[in-house]
Amino acid sequence: MRIALFIPCYINQFYPNVGIATYELLSKLGLEIDVPLDQTCCGQPIANSGFESKAADTYHHFVHQFKSCDYVVAPSASCVYHVRKHYDIIPQTDEVQHIRKNTIDLTEFLIDVLKKDDFNTWFPHTVSIHQSCHGLRGLRMAQSSERNLPPFSKWEDLLNKVKGIQLVKTTIADECCGFGGTFAINEEALSVKMGKDKILDSLHTHAEYITSGDMSCLMHLDGIIRRNKYPIKVIHIAEILNTQL
Amino acid sequence: MISHVDLGTKYLEDEPRVDWHNKAVFNFRKKRDNTVKSIPEWEDLRDHASLVKDHVIAHMDEYLMEFEKKAMANGVHVHWAATAEEHNKIVHSIIERHQATRVVKSKSMLTEECGLNEYLEHRGIEIIDTDLGERIVQMRHEPPSHIVAPAIHLKKEEISELFNKELNTEKGNYDPTYLTRAARIHLREKFVAAQIGITGVNFAVAENGAIVIVTNEGNADLGCHIPPVQIHCVGMEKIIPRWQDLGIFVRLLAPNGTGQKISVYTSHFCKPKPGSEMHVVLVDNGRSAQLKSTKFRNSLKCIRCSACLNTCPVYRRTGGFSYHTPVGGPIGSILMPNRDIKEYKDLPFASSLCGSCSDVCPVKIDIHSQLYKWRQEIIKETGADPSKKMAMNQAATVLSDPKSFNRWTRLMRFALKKFPRWMLYNSFNTWGKNRELPTVPKESFIEWYKKKKK
């Protein structure tokens, strides 16, 4: 199985530990991992701003970078969702179809492909899960609260196996954090208010950490947490899963 | 030009009010969840409803013709209005023919869309909204802020003050029961004096030419039963094929909107009362143009339950008026650009694309995907402001070219590490207004990886 890592641009530059945790976690499972050095971005920021047609070159570049591997694994549900759902505007060659089908979020990859949920890790903290919208309703990694279908959560499946962890529930299980890509800039006041409400909801549960499969949501929340000195931290799910026992 | 960003940002200045509004609106969502979870066949109902509406959209012309035929056979006068102006003229001409000056109206978002109240008021006709929430906003000379709960933006204290001024109720009496009773007496007088009753319509059944109106206050019933002339204004997408289809929609509508098992009144009107007149005005006003668009036609499936407003984290925090249209919230944001893409070009961007609206929708409209598609259409049709366009061109170049991408991202990291705070946090940095920028690590992931591989 040829696995390549896609490390989104902001994770590469600002949160290398998330990339490292992802890399180490998969390495420990005995997987050979390739990291194409010329990878850039999935193109979502351009497309969500309404400039989808201008994103085509970025889409082609992405496909070209990863075309020779079986799975493109990314610690970011949002980027994965974008590749799967919105790479429909470029010609659907075999390569493009292969990439759209096999670009996969880390949590999904662990649960659905490797069928592994226990990594023998130890994280003795109180944690609330932020189910990112693109992971939740885009990739259906958990049941959204709107639908009347049996509940499940792939994030919880992984975290429940972490020793010492205490998972806590927020009042609204799946409220958006307000990041939304360029929305965070275009609707600044609203975005910050949504983020603040999300953090306060977690604070009420006495969580020490907010975790998520999407670092972009966490970057936004972390920005608000540090500005207001809220007594809570953010941590990517890969970092929890990669802690040593 | 007014925009959601400006109106929403202004609304957000009063944080306690935002929190109150958020909670009040989300309360509908909570009640909705409770009721929906008690209906095991819920997702099947959604599938069925969606299929019926898809079918209606594909055969709307046939069902409208069938409806007209059956309604006329029942003794109903059927009118066709291509535009809002035509709709208003038709309604006015009926009123004029009866030399009426006092009209009562039950809830209708369509007449809001057409501006019927102003049209009739300018022609010397008293038109009274009889839904309590609508009467309140009418007294305040405001539009409704929510399609099901028109006065959800007002606190009981504000309503008390208004009624003190308008209905002479006790000053400082905030008791909702007291205030509702005062409104009831006021509205009863209007009902009894009315010469004409106008209603909106929830469903028009093609099979037998009947119309169905859902209310909680029974005001549509009084408005139809007391005056000798009743006029029903119907957006043409309200048509459904058969009686048996109605069961699906009634089962979905109230639970999803307000969390009630069923609305208090679900009233069926088939033919005029003995010795009186019943009119139905079928309104197009841009709907057939929208039907032509394969990309955007499916928002016509909407049954106006309001669940997408109630669940929307944006609507709840910026209020209905921030959408500057009668139908706000996510559904408004994908309906209104069909009418006027320039006027409403901001609305599809007033979303984090969280997708809650699509999952809550009883007829499975892919609202968040439509928002995304509208963004593309809007940039294509109306252009973007030059600075945004430049930034996007720049991004498109950088993100498809690894060399310049690496230069850019390194430069960004360098700036974040080395620049003093005043250079990073200023009016150019929208992110940093209320958020810290990420802290900068000593090396990037790729740098770490390269070292490791050496």
Defining key terms:
heterodimer, A: 245 residues, Rossmann fold, four-stranded parallel beta sheet, 8 strands, 11% strand, globular, B: 454 residues, alpha/beta, Fumarate Reductase Iron-sulfur Protein, Chain B, domain 2, six-stranded parallel beta sheet, 22 helices, 53% helix
Layout of secondary structure:
The complex is a heterodimer of chains A (245) and B (454).
Chain A: E1 3-5, H1 9-14, H2 16-28, E2 33-34, H3 44-51, H4 56-66, E3 71-74, H5 77-86, H6 94-102, E4 103-105, H7 106-113, E5 126-129, H8 133-138, H9 154-159, E6 166-168, H10 183-186, H11 188-203, E7 209-212, H12 215-228, E8 233-236, H13 237-241
Parallel strand pairs in A: 1-2, 1-3, 3-4, 5-6, 5-7, 7-8
Helix pairs in contact in A: 11-12
Chain B: H1 4-12, H2 15-36, H3 42-58, H4 60-73, E1 77-81, H5 84-97, E2 102-105, H6 109-114, H7 116-121, E3 126-129, H8 132-139, H9 156-166, H10 176-193, E4 196-199, E5 203-205, E6 210-215, H11 219-225, E7 229-235, E8 239-240, H12 243-257, E9 265-269, E10 277-283, H13 287-291, H14 307-311, H15 313-318, H16 329-339, H17 356-360, H18 367-382, H19 386-399, H20 402-418, H21 421-424, H22 445-453
Parallel strand pairs in B: 1-10, 2-3, 2-4, 4-7, 5-8, 7-10
Antiparallel strand pairs in B: 5-6, 6-9
Helix pairs in contact in B: 3-12, 9-10, 16-18
Molecular structure report:
The complex is a heterodimer of chains A (245) and B (454). Chain A has 245 residues and is α/β, with parallel strands linked by helices. Chain A folds into 2 domains: 3-113, no CATH class; 126-241, 3-Layer(aba) Sandwich (Rossmann fold), CATH 3.40.50. Chain A is 47% helix and 11% strand. Chain A has helices spanning 9-14, 16-28, 44-51, 56-66, 77-86, 94-102, 106-113, 133-138, 154-159, 183-186, 188-203, 215-228, 237-241; strands spanning 3-5, 33-34, 71-74, 103-105, 126-129, 166-168, 209-212, 233-236. A 4-stranded parallel β-sheet of chain A has the order 2-1-3-4, with helices on both faces. In chain A, helix 12 links the parallel strand 7 (209-212) and strand 8. In chain A, helix 11 (188-203) packs across helix 12 (215-228). The longest helix of chain A has 16 residues, at 188-203. Chain A is globular, with a radius of gyration of 17 Å. Chain B is an alpha/beta fold. Chain B folds into 3 domains: 1-38 and 296-383, Orthogonal Bundle (Fumarate Reductase Iron-sulfur Protein, Chain B, domain 2); 39-285, 3-Layer(aba) Sandwich (Rossmann fold); 403-453, no CATH class. Chain B has 22 helices and 10 strands. A 6-stranded parallel β-sheet of chain B has the order 1-10-7-4-2-3, sandwiched between helices. In chain B, a hairpin with a 4-residue loop joins strand 5 (203-205) and strand 6. The mean pLDDT of chain B is 95. The interface between A and B is large, with 77 and 73 residues.
